[in-house]
Amino acid sequence: MRLHLSPEDQAFRDEMRTFFTTAVPQPIRDAVAAHRELTKEQFVEAQQVLNAAGLAVPHWPVEWGGKDWTPLQRHIWREEMQLANVPEPLAFNASMIGPVIATFGSQEQKERFLPATASLDIWWCQGFSEPDAGSDLASLRTTAVRDGDDWVVNGQKTWTTLGQHADWIFCLVRTDPTADKKQRGISLLLFPMDSPGITLRPIELLDGGFEVNEVFFEDVRVPAENLVGEENHGWDYAKFLLGNERVGIARIGSTKRMLIEAKQHAREITSGGAPLLDDPYLRARIAEIENDLLALELTALRVVANSAGGRPHPASSVLKLRGSELQQAATELLVDIAGPLSLPSFSDDGDSDVPEWAQVAAPNYLNYRKVSIYGGSNEVQRTIIAGSILGL
Amino acid sequence: MDFSYDDEQNGLREAVSALLARAYGDSEQRRAVVATDPGFDEKTWSRLAEMGVLGLPFAEADGGMGAGPVEVSIVAEEIGRVLAPEPFVEAVVLAGGLVADLGTAAQRAEVLGALAEGSLVPAFAHTETGSRWDPAARAVTATSDGGSWRLSGVKEPVPNGARADVLVVSAAVDGGTRLFLVQGDAEGLTRSGHRNHDGTRSAKVAFAGTPAEPLGEGTGDQTAVVEKALARARVAYGHEALGAMETALTTTAEYLKARKQFGVPLSKFQALTFRAADMYVSLELARSTVMWATLVVDADGDVVAAADRARLQASRASRHIGKEAIQLHGGIGVTAEYKVGHYTSRLTAIDHLLGDGDWALARLAGSVDAHEAVDPLD
Prior knowledge:
Chain A is an alpha+beta fold and 392 residues long. Chain A contains 12 helices and 9 strands.
């Protein structure tokens, strides 16, 4: 048992902090700090800065650009990135399909996709959820039927995040409708988003943004070589992918950043003639979220240390569950500090004195309702804890 | 940062766990022990002494083992796991800790040596009925007359105050607080023992011109020393609570699997299993924070602030898990005949001994603008 970082890890942390706060362009970090929607170009530029320094995909195999870091170093990398308001490498590329191709893909697929996936020269989107297959993902109905050297895909996906920017999709499809269990008979296909027969329909969210889409497939032809791994084994790859998705989803650094911001704003707003931050109830509320976040960070440090062998610790469900709740608590705190200023959310297109942070507070709070739903809803996480940890 | 135990620490846990399992493996054994005074088992206390547990944190020169807060935390967890009523945190961490902090070589040898051997039980007489969770003494005062000191006033509740062989007493002197040793047979000392709701004992201890020996040679205010000793005890109680919470949760999970209603085990009802999952979340978050606080004690960092943080998490988790353990059991959880309710009772007692969650939160809220962010890696 030891409290402090080793001198090597301390130096590593300093190195990360220096890089993230100096090498990533300030306008991009300002946009993240202000909770603005990033442009595609900003995402790509930030990831390419990281990738050029070997910091975009450290958890990949070394031969494909990974680093042989300890779990603690990966944790520090991620937290420092969030604290510095650096946009994380696109999850669909770095955390989801990249590791799947590196683990299960053919040599040809690795060479074709992995370098461009790390550099974001290919932007991937996720074709998993369907209108009737959300938390019950294995109920998916999009089909792929073999026709000569091609698969022919028909059906519909939804909640496809940033699909409007995507070059390629990784897509779960049903290839054996007669399989005895619904988890069998699913395969994983890769294909370009400009393939004939694909239609994208943006879905407007409560915050006025268009971050998710529906994707429709009508007789989309996919070359057989674009199947990942084995036919009808797609569920195994999906589970592997979702397990990776849960790691790092706690977003502790990002929540820490929001709490820092909340205290700054609470100093500037007055209530009853005194700074809002002097209000004992607000102070207690902030102190309790800070303490909960400390408990979560310490738990993350315990869990990463026990995640050897690449398999997530079962307690990583705690990180997802509590991490999402604290992200939501922080966004709620910001709306409450904004108070009446949180109402004119779109006043930036007219004459208004409402500061930008207050304008975005409520849309952000509403948008963040998603974090307890995606990545395996918090109810799914409770099912995992009850089943695989408590044996219920 | 490293949260793993070494082989020696794992060995200590196994040894203490085995000793306590023999004494309290069946919850009826504990019920029988706490039914009569002094509320713990003198034989088990002696066996803990033989194992070296009662001298664990003290210097070898004082008769101790020279171990640290991590070893103490392991023992406290095992105590909590079976609700062993032996006053380990009270006597060793708190009363013994103060003697180790302030005592002269002679006082350390006399108190800590005998404590380590199991022949002397010290208690810290500090709480007064008019104030709470305050490091300063007010109602008990000390006066000196030609170099000899006498105490007057009342301390209550004093954990193990009736059984204790020697009392470490806080008293107001010249607007500050100083500590004194009072022998159990001192003149002008009246002790009236009571049973607490969790089976432990406490006492009303009255001083009427009672002779007392100053602890240590210092003459200044010792409030800060008391504050730090209380903080270390809060962290140790946090570990005792972790052990108790873990048993409360596993007992509840077993019960959900075994108990049938409507023709199926209770574990078929998602309304119940989700609540058990939430108990696990509370436990693990509290565990991380309390373990971290022990590491802060070990590194002699900001012990008081770390103890407040651990206290807040442990308090919230204790209440959550204690209440849910009873609710998920149903009526049997409220009976004294079944074990789980006793865990809730002990967790409730720990929560109120040295400061509860809201108390800790109020202190943390007071300093919320003194830092930008809370960073455990700095």
